[in-house]
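Recap quiz, item 2
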Amino acid sequence: MNEKYDLHCHSTASDGSLSPKEVVERAHQQGVTSLALTDHDTINGQQEAAESAVANNINYIPGIEISTTWENKCFHILGLNIDPQNATLNSNIKSLQLLRTERAKKIALKLEKRRVPNAYEAVVTMANGGMITRAHFAKFLLENSYVSTQQQAFDRYLGKGKTAFVSTIWADLHDVIHWINQAGGVAVVAHPLRYKLTASWMRRFLSAFKDAGGQGIEIITGRSSADEIRKSITFAHQYQLAASVGSDFHTPENQWVELGRLAPLPDNIQPVWELF
Ligand code: AMP
Ligand code: MN
Ligand code: MN
Ligand code: MN
């Protein structure tokens, strides 16, 4: 049978639109054979996903996407093949969950000053107990016709430096890698080209990541071009990082990103799942 990995996606436990069970079922329909659900700063969807994976005969890899800050910049680090019950991990992500709620209130206050009222109540209802992210605010702005696309919500309000942007100090990069390793997992840099780093900042970041015990980097994500894949492979080779693949699927409404729809991993690189 053809193996198909997808090691990065989201459910209603954070800013995805499908429940963990629905994500697993859709992944199965798309031919995924090994899946990791990686919600932002929470493991709440893990049990449901694992149970559903058994029912759908999919190999399930427990995961999380953790928000970190390094040198005043935000980076998303995936923890793959973690033990979701791990006490260190669980107690530490609680502070990120509180931080997300506090930040959401601050974003809503800023929106209110821009004549966009009631955003906090709306995103709390929308998230329905899941982690609130800027994606929820973008959806709220779109649904209430403050913007005409999700991208416009980021360009006008939510993006870095825009009117409703709230600068946040997430968990320390080194600490996060430590928690992931403590939980028996592999730390992986998510979407390395989305941070818009200069070459020299990228080198500094990857050295710090590697020195702190990071082991992998995403080579292929939902919308990577051939050129982006080549660039990421070069980083992986330079820093001896294993290669991960993940769609970063959030919702079927985004027709450009689908579970399991990923370019194949080249032969000249070590797949991250060899470390599991
Ligand atoms: P947060 O972690 O709360 O800052 O929110 C980040 C989430 O917002 C990402 O995981 C995406 O789901 C979404 N997001 C960030 N930037 C964009 C963008 N430019 N367009 C659409 N969605 C975005
Ligand atoms: Mn997201
Ligand atoms: Mn991310
Ligand atoms: Mn993601």
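The beta strands are 5-6, 34-35, 59-60, 63-70, 73-80, 171-172, 186-189, 216-221, 242-246.
Residues 65, 76, 190-191 surround manganese (II) ion (ligand 3) (CB under 6 Å).
End of item.
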